[in-house]
Amino acid sequence: MFITFIVGTAGSGKSLMTAALEKWLAGIEMSVAVVNLDPGVDDPPYTSDVDVREYVDYGEIIRTFGLGPNGALVAALDMAVNHVQDLREEMLDTAADYVIVDCPGQMELFAYRNSGPLMVSGLAGKEPSLALYLLDANIARTPEGYLSSMLLGISIGIRFALPQLNILSKPDILMDEQVREIVMWSEEPYLLETALLDSATGLNREYAQAIMRMLQDLGGGTSVIPVSGKLMAGMELLYAEMQRIFLGGDNIVR
Ligand SMILES: Nc1nc2c(ncn2[C@@H]2O[C@H](COP(=O)(O)OP(=O)(O)O)[C@@H](O)[C@H]2O)c(=O)[nH]1
Ligand SMILES: [Mg+2]
Questions:
Q1: Does the C-beta of 44 come closer than 6 Å to ligand 1?
Q2: Fewer CB within 10 A of the terminal residue: the chain, N end or C end?
Q3: Bigger pLDDT: 123 vs 110
Q4: How many Å lie between the centroid of ligand 1 and the Cα of residue 16?
Q5: What is the homologous superfamily of the domain 2-137+159-177+222-248 according to CATH?
């Protein structure tokens, strides 16, 4: 059983990517199970085999504790951690080749609070696992947006301690040339540095260079993979990279 966690900011395309990956893997004759970890999701574009909403009631939490949508999600995931072993058992019972886990978009759950990483490590156990971190093309299209998305991805990677692939989601909303440019930023950090220095923020050169060095050390090696959940484009490359990690025992991949 290979487990893939889909993470990214709210609206970055996690749920549609989950559905697309499920469909694509089923198309190559793999058995696939989907786990929904987002207590607040209304109508996901897939049928989940395991669902955190069976264990925590987001609407009830809002009503009982008088919390807003964000606070209620944080509380819901805190409560869901108590059920992680049940979720894991349900997941193992599916005996699927691949499990895709659709995560909530509240990045503070993963970057700062304990509940996100506890859910991930509790579910994953010793099964081979990886994270797909989605960079939203709406944000990553500018050098500053790309940089801050990448830094958030690194924070997530630190907390998850899982092999991670960085995905440019919704590439279909950009022109091919823009997509190529973003991929180049991931492969050649000096191009990102140049783009940052040329852009309007007035980031000073020393600061930009220091960040680039850090990105190179932490994020170097693999490029961002453009994958459109909407068009199901880029799936072959994504699958090849996933296989490389799952079968190659590659540990730190970003
Ligand atoms: N154009 C385009 N839109 C997408 C893509 N993936 C998701 N979206 C749209 O982005 C919005 C948020 O997607 P969703 O999967 O719910 O994001 P989540 O909040 O990260 O789970 C929806 O309106 C989707 O239809 C994509 O690959 N291309
Ligand atoms: Mg979602």
A1: no
A2: N
A3: 123
A4: 6
A5: P-loop containing nucleotide triphosphate hydrolases (3.40.50.300)
